[in-house]
């Protein structure tokens, strides 16, 4: 991992409460049920042009979004945790404290033991917004319904 990626992961971990919070299914449905992930569900779509603003709104007003289904596209990244294990994220890069070093998106987790895609894959994630205890606070994450690797990448850097 190069210095820039190490720096990004450090910032990710520092800004999880403010900026953050997928296995792989190529067929578009839940691998456990075979159903489309959003059939009959009200989904909050995080769009490319308003990506940073929508994600920020979810973090600032999380009580209005907890339990809702969220869909977004972004880069899939794995970050090794101190003490072992990995955290998984779907995010885009944006402005940060030092220029373009901010990460905007969500931590993602499968509820079971599904596989995750390769690091730096472009994915569409659909999941329910939930919270968990982290240290003395809490963090947001998406409990995945589907995580699909896409062939066409969107804008990796957003404002």
Would you mind describing this structure in some detail?
The chain has 159 residues and is of the alpha/beta class. It has one domain. The chain contains three helices and six strands; from the N terminus they run ααβαβββββ. It has a five-stranded mixed β-barrel. Strand 3 (86-96) and strand 4 form a beta hairpin. The longest helix has 12 residues, at 3-14. The two termini are 25 Å apart.
Any key phrases for this structure?
alpha/beta; 5-stranded mixed beta barrel; 6 strands; 16% helix; globular; disordered N terminus
Short description:
The protein is α/β, with parallel strands linked by helices and 159 residues long. It is built from 3 helices and 6 strands, in the order H-H-E-H-E-E-E-E-E.
What order do the helices and strands come in, and which of them pair?
Layout: H1 3-14, H2 16-19, E1 43-45, H3 51-60, E2 69-80, E3 86-96, E4 99-109, E5 122-134, E6 137-149
Parallel strand pairs: 1-2, 4-6
Antiparallel strand pairs: 2-3, 2-5, 3-4, 5-6
